[in-house]
Amino acid sequence: QEVLGEDKLMAILKERELKIYWGTATTGKPHVAYFVPMSKIADFLKAGCEVTILFADLHAYLDNMKAPWELLELRTRYYETVIKAMLESIGVPLEKLTFVRGTDYQLSKEYTLDMYRLSSVVTQHDAKKAGAEVVKQVEHTLLSGLLSLGLQALDEEYLKVDAQFGGVDQRKIFTFAEKYLPSLGYAKRVHLMNPMVPGLTGSKMSSSEEDSKIDLLDCKEDVKKKLRKAFCEPGNVENNGILSFIKHVLFPLKSEFVILREEKWGGNKTYTEYEALEKDFAEQVVHPGDLKNSVEVALNKLLDPIREKFNSPELKKLTQAAYPKAKPAEKPTKNSEPENMVVPSQLDMRVGKVISVEKVQDSLVVLLCNMKPKAMRGVESQGMVLCAS
């Protein structure tokens, strides 16, 4: 979608092939939008580039502890396995790629000293600005999240690349690196950005928003269910995650897309240009139902090899260990009170007046008046009778 440093890029290509890296923080499970950078990595390899894939495990921990320390190694193994499976599913030769983990070199003395040097020149304002779209935003930002931006800048030097590739949502991080790397005596790198695929709900597809994404290991039934619920208004091509996936993944991989439909609706139609498909959808020649069904078939072809690989007992165990399911809330015991139950100690007695207190058949009856509806959770605010055994 965008290139920063195109003149430098062209100058390098006059002398040799480009050295480039793409990094991913090992946090939530990768989803189908990861096929966008994967298909572009395939393009880089076809163009003769030397490509390094970085599994940024330390980044994942520093960015608001999105990956707990005790799960870091497991999640990094999961990412490495699933991304290699993705690349294999679209026919990318793994032997042409270099795979690196951040902790393989980011804990070295030289790298650590450079982090201190960088922190001595970076302002808090610039760090917060750089991470505005990527670092998890909370009311009280942790220092660790801002440190991860410095790591991403230094990675360009320590991986000895000419360029970094990432989503357009990382633009501010890239300009941060361009500004501060020269202050350490390091060269400014080229930055290449792919567009962000809208999620199924219309916003950015995100690992943390379950309804917006299709997981790489989702079964066919789940894929069908999520696609059926996806935002795909007839004729609307804006924020349409279905169309965007076709444009940025399926077309680049296959150079065509087939709309599957019954003969009574015109039969199957093959599109060799995305613009023609978008035009037909905008003019409602292509129905959203047919579009979703066609994407479902094409997507399952990409996911089948990944599902098959992760069907082994070893990888099932790894997945469960790296992403343990949250424990269900404990059921209240016979003598315990439900969490949302109103008890006398929770009531603000200042907003009402106790009219009378008397004992009736081993129960305490308190008659209250003029209580706030909020405190009484929907009970009538006049003349409430509160019984406590």
TrEMBL record:
Q: Which UniProt keywords apply?
A: Aminoacyl-tRNA synthetase, ATP-binding, Cytoplasm, Ligase, Nucleotide-binding, Nucleus, Protein biosynthesis, RNA-binding, tRNA-binding
EC primary class = ligase
Q: Where in the cell is it found?
A: Cytoplasm; Nucleus
Q: Give the UniProt entry's GO cellular component terms.
A: cytoplasm; nucleus
Molecular function (GO) terms for this protein are: ATP binding; tRNA binding; tyrosine-tRNA ligase activity
Domain of life, per UniProt, equals Eukaryota
Q: What are its GO biological-process terms?
A: tyrosyl-tRNA aminoacylation
Stretches for region Disordered: 321-340
Entry's SUPFAM superfamilies? Nucleic acid-binding proteins (SSF50249), Nucleotidylyl transferase (SSF52374)
Instruction: Tell me its EC number(s), please.
Output: 6.1.1.1
Composition-biased stretches, type Basic and acidic residues, lie in 327-337
What are the TRNA-binding domain coordinates in residue numbering? Answer: 295-389
Segments spanning the bilayer are none
Q: Where is this chain primarily localised?
A: cytoplasm
Name the family.
Answer: Belongs to the class-I aminoacyl-tRNA synthetase family.
> What protein name is recorded for this chain?
Tyrosine--tRNA ligase
Q: Which organism is it from?
A: Buceros rhinoceros silvestris
